[in-house]
Amino acid sequence: MTAPALPALPIDETAPGEFERLRRFVHYHLGRFALGLVRVNDPQQRNNVLDALADALRAEGVQLARLDLSNRHPASLRAAIQAEPEAAQAVAAAARGEPAALAIVGMEHLIEAEPRADGRPAFAAALNLEREQLRAALPLPVLLCLTDHAMDRLDLAAPDFFDWYSAVFNLRPAHPAAAGAETLAPSPSEASPPADDLTPEARAARLDLLEERRAELMRQGAEARPRLAQVLSEMGEMYARWPEFHQRQLAVTPLREARDIYRELGDRAGEARALEQLANVNYWIDEYHWARHGYERAARLYRELGTRLGEANCIRALGDVHVQLAEYAAARTKYEQALPLYRELGTRLGEAHCIRALGDVHRVLAEYASARDRYEQALALYRELGTRLDEANVYWELGRMEFRLGTIVEGYETVRRAAQLYTAIGIPFAATAQAWLAEHRARYLAEKAEQEQRTQAQAIQPYRELIEWVVEGSRNNPDARQLAQAKIEALRREGHTAELAESLDRILNKGMRVEKRLVQFLENSEHVAVVREILRRLGM
User: Fold this and answer.
1) Residue 95: in which H helix or E strand, if any?
2) In the beta sheet, which residues pair with residue 168?
3) Cα–Cα distance between 334 and 332 in angstroms, integer?
4) Which residues are within 8 A (CB) of 536 and not within 5 positions of it... i.e. 6 or more apart?
5) How far is residue 277's CA from residue 282's CA, in Å, rounded to a whole number?
6) N or C: which end of the chain has fewer CB within 10 A?
7) Closest CA to 12 of 160, 169, 149, 173
8) Would you call 196 helix, strand, or coil by DSSP?
9) Closest among 174, 94, 183 to 140, alpha carbons compared
10) DSSP, residue by residue, 134-188
11) For residue 313, with 0-12 CB atoms within 10 Å meaning exposed, 13-18 middle and 19 or more buried, which class applies?
12) Residue 186: is the preceding peptide bond cis (ω within 30°)?
């Protein structure tokens, strides 16, 4: 099958080149087994890319099923596929010659599980043993999405299976994602370092000036060491703000030198700041092992110094690191540790960020009620603080979660609130949100129409029951009309004006006489128009 031209990419900040490679890989290998390894460290970016890929392939007649193994512990990949209806249906469709592909996510915890006696995790060992069966059982292209750390572990734990890959795809966020950026800076939970207003030329000029100052301070000897550490820290921050991955890596060396100088001088506060800065950079360049090491040491120093905000920020950042490694239970623990610190300090923005992060973890673990509760808490705080971008981000996640869970109308309208905020703020991500709304508008309108019909039917049900009860009961029960009056009065107090009129009209149409005391009762009520119509029909 020849792949059509690439449609407009409905996701922000993702390299179209890698997206096009993924799409062509699927088309090229339709009808036979092929393994594509997708390196991606940001779960949200991974989900956005797979959502866009599924939409593009669907428009071209290809089904992309998704198998999420998060929080699951199958004995083998074949068992996991057989147990998941969507994945099993895609495999069956491919066996019938229909165009289908499979994307597998959330496998990190299975690859990094405790090893067996032979040194390999059970799931990874099963991959090695069943690779021949997988080739025969899966007549379709398979995209296996893993973090860098898990991918390296897979190479060691299941080398035979790993060697079967046909292509590797690297998904790296090039710029801060609008919907993921937080304003508590510097925060590694952003996809990239916080941006500044400097042009590339101005940033390069500033780095040249800092380099000159560094060289001068080094010539001045020991007395200039404190100022040298400050210059090195600023150099590291400037390098970290470059958009390209290889440029950001240049931040590591000056920040390490600054850390060592502060340690040499016995400046523990400076050392803690440098450790945190270095950990931020390691996070931004996907070196999560070193990021975790740096945050742990910085948090310990901040704790010893009594710098509670620095400690809280580092603990929260450790939660972000665990998320990138798909270690969601550990991430939740860190967020829960940081949350009371922010509350004790009265740092409302840090508190809101922690609560939202806990919502994200609950969502990934399919704990949807808890996720909804956390998102609502975070929304209340963001509204109080007036941080509209953060508010929009929560609406975006909450709305799409509700939509996927089948709460179509509420989910769509929540995403619409996010899109309105993104547009009002004036960020490019507004176009992504608007594209999502346009794509799902037909389903929303259909569900909303059905919901309105259901609501109307539920609203008039008490009156239908009343009519039936009066019609049947009045034949055998002389007090039926009096009891009906009491029910009508109760309904009147609830404000059901239009429905009450309809009920009375239907009673009249069934040939029932309206007693004068009922007319008098209605004359003294709010339903004057109804009474007049009844009197007109009765000729009274």
Assistant:
1) helix 85-95
2) 37
3) 5
4) none
5) 9
6) C
7) 173
8) coil
9) 94
10) HHHH--SEEEEEE-HHHHHHHHHH-HHHHTTEEEEEEE---S--TTT--SSSS-T
11) buried
12) yes
Which of the 8 DSSP states describes residue 217?
H
Q: How far apart are CA 416 and CA 434, in angstroms?
A: 8
Contacts of 22 (CB under 8 A, 6+ apart): 36, 38, 49, 53, 143, 169
Q: In 266-347, which residue ranges form alpha helices assigned H by DSSP?
A: 268-284, 288-305, 308-324, 328-345
* pTM, rounded to two decimals: 0.55
Comparing 117-121, 200-204, 444-448, the range with the smallest average pLDDT is 117-121
Q: In whole angstroms, how far apart are CA 524 and each of 375, 467, 485?
A: 49, 22, 13
Residues 108, 326: contact at Cβ < 8 Å? Answer: yes
Look up residue 306 and give its DSSP letter: T
Residue with structure tokens 């080398």?
159
Q: CA 252 → CA 170, 272, 274, distances in Å?
A: 22, 15, 11
Buried b (16+ CB within 10 A) or exposed e, 158-181: beebbebbebebebbbeebbbbbb
For 71-98, write each residue's pLDDT tens digit: 677 888 888 898 899 999 999 999 999 9
Distance CA 356, CA 375 (A): 6
